[in-house]
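note to self — DONT lose this again. spent like an hour looking for the file last time. sequence + predicted structure for the chain T wanted, 83 res
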Amino acid sequence: MASENTGRRNVTISINPEMIRKAKILAARRSTSISGLLAEQIELLAGAEEMYERAERAALAQLEEGFHLGGTITASRDELHER
């Protein structure tokens, strides 16, 4: 029986034996596989990166707009910088 295409692809990684042992224990505690554990963590990292990039773009847009902190400027630039 052929498996359905789930839109996922296999990736090969190299991990030292001690880390594999720890990953198996962690995956078992979470009722998943090492593959599932890694996929979940990569998805979390990618999501965090996307959120950071969106926040960065929003912050830069606000800086471009500038902020009105109240008050009015009554002196000219030359008056302010007069020596």
